[in-house]
Amino acid sequence: MKTRSILLATVFGTAATMAFADAHTAKEITVMSWGGAYSKSQLEAYEKPFAEKTGIKVNSVVADNPATPIKAQVEAGNVTIDVVDVEYADALRLCDDGLLEILDPAILADGADGSAAMDDFLPGAVTDCFVATIVFSTMYAFDETKFPENPPSKIEDFFDVAGFPGKRGMRKTAKVNLEMALMADGVAPDEVYDILETDEGVDRAFAKLETIKNDVVWWEAGAQPPQLLADGEVAMTTAYNGRIFGATVSEGKPFKSIFDGQVYEYDGYAIPKGAPNLEAALEFVTFSTQTQQLADQAKYISYGPARKSSGPLVGLFEDGKTEMGPFMPTAEANLVKALPSNTEFWADRNTDLNERFNAWLAQ
């Protein structure tokens, strides 16, 4: 019996050592994300420390929406990406289509406060194929020099071109635009998706968008909105909150963020099906989603960490003087009229509503 135990221990110990060694046979991995200040925050908080700890180099590549090339790569059987940063709804859809690896939650580290990982992550932040890292939002911002008196302050003002003249920037997609249109039309945040479930509700949202259609400059990449503002091409624009924070605090641009009517959601990591360096990719996901790493990311960009234990560790911006708390989408003052994105709704309706959106654009 004693001999058998020793043999089993040797077998399992050898297996564990081999698994660990396999992760390090990869000299490098490739991670796809969104670019700009967001990719910089991942470089500083995740990629550099991971490379220093493991010796595995991290190559960072960028896409306007990483879900699109990942889908194409997996379907073509030519996967070159090991880890991908995707929005929550895209992760659900890709997972349902069998295009992502299943992730065992046992790989996730416990919280720094000792809490179990699945208790430490915010509700719904971990799914079969996805681990959230941040809470981000789409809100709108304006150039303060354009409105020195009576500046915009609510979502209704974004759709009021007569009262607040100037071009508007909006992402070229149905998602978020329809929700914001309904909130600007007087719908309470907690009623938005009930209304969008109906044909009449969708018609109502598009009718509201129609009122500013001729004044919209459409953007697709996250870096575009602050540039549109800086170049004077628009007076206000929807944007990812972290992009505007970066332009305002890091670059000194005269932009003001409006969180009234914001739509917030999770974003995080997944592994494409057939990733060439699976074990190293898993190790990267485990490392990057630890309490301290998520808190460290908030030093570089104003996205809230997806772990409860990370919150108390969030402090100053990299400038050493700007408190990050008030710039987070999850700050109490910013949640007064905020809408959590319904990811199941968009996982089910994204294709149909985008087809209608594109047809509407072409009219």
What characteristics describe this protein?
disordered N terminus; 14 helices; globular; 363 residues; D-Maltodextrin-Binding Protein, domain 2
Helix and strand arrangement:
Layout: H1 2-25, E1 28-33, H2 36-54, E2 57-62, H3 67-76, E3 83-87, H4 88-96, H5 117-120, E4 126-127, E5 130-143, H6 155-158, E6 168-171, H7 177-184, H8 192-196, H9 199-210, E7 216-219, H10 224-230, E8 236-240, H11 241-250, E9 255-270, H12 278-288, H13 291-297, E10 304-305, E11 339-340, H14 343-362
Parallel strand pairs: 1-2, 1-3, 6-7, 6-8, 9-11
Antiparallel strand pairs: 3-9, 4-5, 5-8, 5-9, 5-10
Helix pairs in contact: 1-12, 2-13, 4-14, 7-9
Total strand segments: 11
CATH architecture call of the largest domain: 3-Layer(aba) Sandwich
Radius of gyration: 22 Å
Helix-strand sequence: HEHEHEHHEEHEHHHEHEHEHHEEH
The parts where pLDDT drops under 50 for at least 5 residues are: 1-23
The named CATH superfamily of the largest domain: Periplasmic binding protein-like II
Structural classification: alpha/beta
Approximately how much beta-strand content do the residues carry? 15-25%
CATH class division of the largest domain? Alpha Beta
Helix content: 40-55%
Mean pLDDT over the residues: 91
Distance between the termini: 78 Å
Q: What is the overall silhouette?
A: globular
Polypeptide structure, described:
It is a single chain. The protein has 363 residues and is an alpha/beta fold. Residues 1-23 have low confidence and may be disordered. The chain is built from 14 helices and 11 strands. The relative contact order is 0.18. It has helices at residues 2-25, 36-54, 67-76, 88-96, 117-120, 155-158, 177-184, 192-196, 199-210, 224-230, 241-250, 278-288, 291-297, 343-362; strands at residues 28-33, 57-62, 83-87, 126-127, 130-143, 168-171, 216-219, 236-240, 255-270, 304-305, 339-340. Strands 1, 2, 3, 4, 5, 6, 7, 8, 9, 10 and 11 form an 11-stranded mixed β-sheet that branches. A hairpin with a 2-residue loop joins β4 and β5 (130-143). It folds into 2 domains: 2-135 and 267-313, D-Maltodextrin-Binding Protein, domain 2; 137-265 and 330-362, Periplasmic binding protein-like II (D-Maltodextrin-Binding Protein, domain 2, 3-Layer(aba) Sandwich). α2 (36-54) packs antiparallel against α13 (291-297). The longest helix is centred in the first third of the chain and has 24 residues, at 2-25.
